Amino acid sequence: MSPRSRQNPLVREFILRNVAEHPGNIGPLAVKKFGLSRAAVNRYMRRLIEEGLLTAKGKTRARRYELKDTVNFRLRMTDITRHSEEDVIWRFKVLPEISNISKNIVDVCHYGFTEMLNNVIDHSLSSDAIICYEQNYCKVSMYVIDYGVGIFSKIQKDFNLSDPRSALLELSKGKLTSDKKQHSGWGIYFTSRMFDQFQIRSGDLFYTRERRDKDDWLIETGDIREHVNGTWIYMGISTDAQWTTREVFDKYQGDDFEFRKTHVPVKLGNYPGEQLVSRSQAKRVLARFDQFSEIILDFHGVEDIGQPFADEIFRIFHNAHPEIEILAVRTNPEIRKMIEFVRESAREKIT
C-alpha cells in the first residue's frame, strides 16, 4: 500500500480545520500533535493541494497555506421588483452550486439566504443586488449586498427613532417589522442565531454576532470608517455544524410558537463619549421588553453603569413586570455590585 493511500484521516482533518488560524506553521503543529516527521506531514500537505483543498504561497520557511474554495458563486441581480421571488433564486441559482455538505447546513443556508434576499426585495428599495456563495472544506460563506436606503436608516424612519444607532438596538432585540401583515420580524433574529458568524454593515454602523460555544456569543457593534451605501450582510457557518433550523427555533420559541427569549447587547444603548447612567438610556434599552418572557442583557464592552440606569431596569421595570425574567451576563464586579444594590433596595422597600 502506497503512502498516498495510508494517510490518517485525523491528520488531514486537523490540518484542514486549523490552517486558517495557523497558515504559516500548520506543518510544525501537526508534527507536534501526531508525532510525525516533517517529511510525513509534507506529504499530507502535498496531497491536500493536489486534491484542491489547499493552496500554498511562498517557499520553505516563508510558505503559507490557505483553504481553497471548492465553490465560488457570484450573481448580480439588476431587475429586482416587489414581485421578485427569493426562493426561485435559491432553487435555480444557488442550490445547484452546493455540494458535499450535510442537509442541516443546507437548510440553514436556505433559511438565511431567502430571509435576507426577501428583505432586499421588500424593504431596501434597491433594484439591484449582489449575492455570493463560497464554500471550502471548513466553511460556507454567503453575502447579500444591496444598494438601497440602508437597513438602519429604514428602521429609523419607519419607527420614528432618533438615529440609526437606536435602530440597531431595536433590530438586535428581534420581533421588529414595519409591515406586520407581510413579515413577522423574525428573519434577522433567527438568521443571526443559525450561523457561526452574522454581520450587518450599513451607513456608518456595523453589527456582528459570532458563536463562541453552544450557549455563548460574542456581539460586537460600532462605527465603521468607510460609509456603506445600502446594506451588506454576511453569513458564515462551519461545514461540521451539527445543529438544525428546528433546534434554533425551539430554543427561542415558547409553547405558543412566539418569541420567548431575546439577547440584547447593552452597549448599544450607549453613545460614543457617554456612560450608561440615566433613566432615559435605560428606557431606550427596555423598549419592547414586554414582548418577551426572558431577556438576556449582555454587558460585554460596558465598563460601568449609573444607579438611575440600573434602578430603572432592575427595580422599576422588574416590579412592573415580575413575570419577565431578566438575566445580566458578562458583567464586571462594579456592574454586579450596582445591580445587586438596586435589587437589595427593592427588597428592603417591600419588607
Proportion in β-strands: 15-25%
What is the number of helical segments per DSSP (H or I, 4+ residues)?
A: 12
Structural class: alpha+beta
Outline type: globular
What number is the mean pLDDT?
A: 89
Largest sheet: 5 strands, antiparallel
- The CATH first-level class of the largest domain comes to Alpha Beta
Q: Order of strands across the biggest sheet?
A: 3-4-5-7-6
What is the total number of structural domains?
Answer: 3
What does this protein structure show overall?
With 351 residues, this protein is of the alpha+beta class. It folds into three domains: 3-67, Winged helix-like DNA-binding domain superfamily/Winged helix DNA-binding domain (Arc Repressor Mutant, subunit A, Orthogonal Bundle), CATH 1.10.10.10; 71-256, Heat Shock Protein 90; 262-350. Helix content is 39%, strand content 24%. It has helices at residues 9-18, 26-34, 38-50, 86-94, 103-123, 151-158, 164-173, 187-194, 245-252, 279-286, 307-320, 333-350, and strands at residues 54-57, 64-67, 71-77, 129-135, 139-146, 197-213, 216-238, 261-265, 294-298, 325-329. The chain has a five-stranded antiparallel beta sheet with strand order 3-4-5-7-6. A three-stranded parallel beta sheet has the order 8-9-10. The protein has a two-stranded antiparallel ribbon with strand order 1-2. Helix 1 (9-18) runs antiparallel to helix 2 (26-34), helix 5 packs antiparallel against helix 8 and helix 11 crosses helix 12. The model has no long low-confidence stretch (mean pLDDT 89).
